[in-house]
Amino acid sequence: MDAEQTATLPTFTIEPTTTPTDAARRAEILANPVFGRAFTDHMAVIRYTEGEGWHDAKVTARQPLTLDPASSVLHYGQEIFEGMKAYRIAGGGVATFRPEANARRFRESAARMAMADLPEALFVEAVDQLVKIDSEWVPSGDGQSLYLRPFMIANEVFLGVKPASEYLFMVIACPVGAYFGKGCVSVWVSEDYTRAAPGGTGAAKCGGNYAGSLVAQAESKKHGCDQVLFLDSREQRFVEEMGGMNVMFVRDDNTLVTPPLTGTILPGITRDSIIRLAIQKGMKVEEAAVDIDELFQGAASGRYKEAFACGTAAVLSPIGTLRRAGGVATFGDGETPGAVSVALKKALTDIQTGRSNDQQNWVHHIL
Ligand SMILES: *Cc1c(COP(=O)(O)O)cnc(C)c1O
Known about the structure:
By secondary structure, the chain is of the alpha+beta class. It folds into 2 domains: 13-176, D-amino Acid Aminotransferase, Chain A, domain 1, CATH 3.30.470; 185-352, D-amino Acid Aminotransferase, subunit A, domain 2 (D-amino Acid Aminotransferase, Chain A, domain 2). The protein contains 9 helices and 18 strands.
């Protein structure tokens, strides 16, 4: 760890809101939470200034920001984020899942975008503090959780093109239900757009990657699909990932196949967790390039039996069909989630919610 990682960390000032959401309204929101629409009462904020480091850590009432119109994020897009969840644990308590992995990835994203290095302990502490003060917002229904959104923006007031000297790190939270609902999603294979190129920002969790993927996502809707799958930018031949989720396939020889982390794919924590669980279940795992033509042929021949997308928001989302200009690949009957997908999702969510043993020490208890 470098000096900044071990330096004395600022302590949080806690300023509870004077206008909390009333309990009846909160209960109404928690009964049927819509992803990303209703937020909790508080937010965590930490400021960074070059020379001074991280300072003014606080948890305060959620409120709009005041930003100078010349703030650098508004012009050059120095912005990164994370996505993680707090779950109610079976038998009591609230916990997040592998938060130190999010903290580490956040540092890596910051390094790629030439942004300030946030100590991992400070990241985890900010999330813990927010979950504590807004714990009544953690829903308890099946598939429900409190989605946490840590993010950082460059807020130096300067139009010169260079890494900013001031940053704002924040965490906001919103209760969420199941992301895609039940059944399988249909996925459009984009042959017009790519998500990331070698040497680019594909492995960093930055807002710009999402901005660049939205037109492809809109294209997938035009073709009647729910999501978009990107291919590699060099040859348009190998499967990369979805707009915001990694992708995996189950082959008929009990093998889980997923594209390797070559720098153009976001290193998902769900991806990593599922790989480990699959190995534990006795499956073979291949992190190997997946040729899109072979995948379409393999779906037809039965060699590729299942496909799914994975990420924090949806956890694991079975793919029923892949479509492209040249045809359709159907996995299973195209509608029913496959047995391996169902088993892996259950194994992961059982750990996240404390219904099964946390052998890997992945669960971070907060309350
Ligand atoms: C966040 C993200 C993922 C999934 O990562 P998790 O850590 O599993 O949530 C996959 N792909 C992209 C592009 C992402 O931004």
